[in-house]
Amino acid sequence: MENSPNVSPMEEVMLKRILANPTVEGVIVTNEQRQLQYTSLNNNVTFFIASKLLSFGDIARSAIRDIDPDDNLLTFRLRTREKEMMVITPVDGMQVIGIQKITSSSSILAKQKQENEYNDNFAHEDLMQDERTDSITK
């Protein structure tokens, strides 16, 4: 990996495996001090995304700690219509941000499943109505 001087060989193997997935658009890895260790994106995008998402992680961690002081945020996932971002934010250690395209096939399958459930509900209601009509006419 061309821009990974601070990444161990084991981490490099994991990054290559993640980036081999065609839906993965990019990966950003920072150290405990939030210094960039690796990115597969251009630097402008990397610094913008990393600063915003890691700050959001701090806010989310604080909110979770307000609810339960013994709990802690480890990961969070943000999903938009087109992308999904997985952020791993341990208190100490490397922080990883993965950005993935949402494939149209998975969106289409989810929509078809919703439509099938919707249609099944109507079919069930029609069947119940027919049974009620039959019992009234007898």
TrEMBL record:
This is Roadblock/LAMTOR2 domain-containing protein. It comes from Rotaria socialis.
